[in-house]
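Key result, reporting period 2: structure in, sequence out.
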């Protein structure tokens, strides 16, 4: 299955989510191929740290600053994760065109909800000629962890009401552990298995890969 982690905005958590999912899937014994199409190469950077530190399990990584590489296997039994943003428009459109599903991490703000709405129309353009459309999923990332902040609930409600995309009811909070683990080449649950970030992430991963 080819899963694209995408959004129009930067900083929504695409690379963080793609990396954590890649590690998690590898740990479940899956063959994982991650494709980094973002010229920022964040996923490749964290991959390099993991390799240098010789952390197991590993997964396969390909990268391109343009379109999908020629050597990319179109038909594969591997779990493919593609990390891509609008900085690489060619790669972005090509990834949308081959995706079985597209997962959109959305920070809890009105601007991000609008941007998700706009993304839906881009996806529908990029997949217009396809008979079988990709499944579209979104979830709140970087949710406020203070109770009393209403923005997260409001953004989630707005996403729930968007047509054509399904809201996954599993939020990731704004938690330091996502940044800290990433900089060490680890998935959140590897660095702090009993932490809140780990619990939130594994819950999300299990819903995504039932
Ligand atoms: N749930 C989260 N909690 C805290 N920090 C996060 C979370 N998700 C992402 N970040 C941080 O936000 C920044 C942007 O995330 P990144 O995954 O690089 O986004 P993108 O790939 O969409 O540009 C990074 O510094 C990352 O560590
Ligand atoms: Mg990124």
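The corresponding designed sequence is given below.
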């Amino acid at each position: 299955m080819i899963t694209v982690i995408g959004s129009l905005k930067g900083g929504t958590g695409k690379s963080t989510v793609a990396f954590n999912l890649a590690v998690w899937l590898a740990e479940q014994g899956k063959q994982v191929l991650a494709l980094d199409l973002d010229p920022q190469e964040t996923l490749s950077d964290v991959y390099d740290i993991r390799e240098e530190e010789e952390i197991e399990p590993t997964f396969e990584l390909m990268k391109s600053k343009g379109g999908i590489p020629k050597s990319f296997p179109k038909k594969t039994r591997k779990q493919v994760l593609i990390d891509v943003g609008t900085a690489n428009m060619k790669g972005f459109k090509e990834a949308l065109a081959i995706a079985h599903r597209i997962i959109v991490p959305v920070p809890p703000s009105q601007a991000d909800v609008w941007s998700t709405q706009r993304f839906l129309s881009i996806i529908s353009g990029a997949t217009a000629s396809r008979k079988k459309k990709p499944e579209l999923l979104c979830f709140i990332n970087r949710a406020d962890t203070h109770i009393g902040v209403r923005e997260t609930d409001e953004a989630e409600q707005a996403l729930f009401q968007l047509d054509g995309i399904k809201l996954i009811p599993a939020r990731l909070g704004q938690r330091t552990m996502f940044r800290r683990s990433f900089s060490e080449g680890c998935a959140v649950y590897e660095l702090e298995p009993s932490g809140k970030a780990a619990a939130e992430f594994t819950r999300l991963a299990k819903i995504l890969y039932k």
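Strands lie at 2-6, 32-36, 60-63, 79-84, 101-106, 135-140, 166-167. The two ends are 13 Å apart (CA to CA). This case is discussed further under Risks and Mitigation.
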